[in-house]
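Title: Comparing notes on inverse folding

I've been comparing how different people in this forum approach sequence design from structure. To keep things fair, I'm posting one structure and asking everyone to reply with a full sequence. Here's the target:
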């Protein structure tokens, strides 16, 4: 039997009503301005409260009374937050309807990953970029190079890449040494800008902290610049390194999470004669992926699955799946 009310609020809130509503964009920070959470601050008799079904949409009888929002058949009830008594046998709560979020990718910290052996031959980037213009210089008290490339050649060079000049260099003296020497080591690109059809770069010497004295430098009207290098050269063993990583997010609405297949982590497999697969540590011409396929990933700076995809309940019966991707090396 219902508890008798002792307030004039009884007639106003005899059924659940909206006292305030607002919309939230939970992933606006990731430039997703479409996924919405609809909030309705509700008041109703406590003895009449009941949650909705996870499949209830924000339409018809399931849509909160006095809602200011238009019907949205793609928004599902997911939760009633902060259910609490407010006196006079009334309760208040925040009734949420959510759209299934779109997929997105976010940056992540470096990730320790064991990459496969690529065999004794290995794969490497060996493209030479020619007809650039640049110079060696001391800039901001650092040992640097400054160079210019055409738009076509600039596709191969991005911030964070390690590059090496084919000729010329800095004359320096390292700490602990007295003799000056010409260095032709690696430089790390930290700035890339565009002007018209040309791209301009600044890169700092990778071991700049080891330099005690800087001497003369060279200026070039043309030079050859080797392409970005990777660790995937002539290496015949597995390597564990801290690799660039990203996290992909996808969402699925389901009442049966056990029926959902998640993505596996990266494996190198060898197909056998009896149509079974053997796990391998080295990519070859006959593995999956093949040495050519994996080499193409390394060349393009592509990503592979760093670990098996994981699932967690986001809201209601909308599940969030995360998969970490690491840059192939």
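Reply #1:
Here's my take.
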């Amino acid at each position: 039997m219902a508890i008798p009310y002792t307030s004039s609020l009884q007639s106003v809130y005899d059924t659940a009503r909206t006292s305030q509503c607002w919309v939230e964009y939970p992933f606006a920070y990731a430039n997703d301005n479409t996924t919405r959470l609809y909030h309705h601050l509700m008041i109703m008799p406590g003895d009449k409260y009941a949650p909705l079904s996870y499949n209830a949409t924000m339409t018809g009888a399931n849509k909160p009374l006095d809602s200011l929002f238009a019907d949205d058949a793609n928004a599902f009830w997911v939760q009633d937050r902060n259910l609490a008594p407010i006196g006079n046998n009334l309760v208040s709560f925040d009734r949420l309807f959510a759209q299934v979020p779109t997929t997105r990718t976010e940056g992540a910290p470096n990730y320790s990953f064991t990459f496969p052996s690529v065999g004794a031959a290995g794969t490497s980037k060996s493209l030479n970029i020619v007809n650039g213009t640049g110079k060696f210089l001391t800039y901001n008290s650092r040992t640097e190079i400054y160079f210019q490339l055409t738009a076509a050649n600039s596709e191969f060079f991005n911030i964070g890449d390690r590059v090496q000049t084919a000729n010329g260099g800095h004359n320096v003296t390292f700490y602990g040494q007295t003799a000056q020497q010409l260095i032709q080591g690696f430089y790390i690109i930290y700035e890339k800008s565009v002007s018209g059809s040309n791209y301009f770069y600044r890169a700092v010497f990778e071991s700049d902290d080891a330099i005690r004295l800087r001497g003369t430098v060279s200026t070039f009207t043309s030079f050859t610049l080797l392409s970005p290098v990777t660790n995937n050269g002539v290496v015949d063993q597995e390597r564990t390194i801290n690799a660039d990583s990203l996290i992909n997010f996808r969402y699925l609405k389901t009442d049966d999470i056990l029926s959902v297949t998640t993505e596996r982590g990266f494996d190198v497999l060898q197909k056998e004669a009896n149509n079974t697969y053997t796990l391998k540590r080295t990519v070859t011409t006959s593995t999956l992926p093949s040495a050519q396929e994996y080499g193409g990933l390394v060349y393009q700076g592509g990503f592979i699955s760093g670990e098996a995809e994981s699932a967690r309940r986001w809201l209601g019966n909308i599940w969030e799946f995360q998969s970490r991707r690491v840059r192939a090396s």
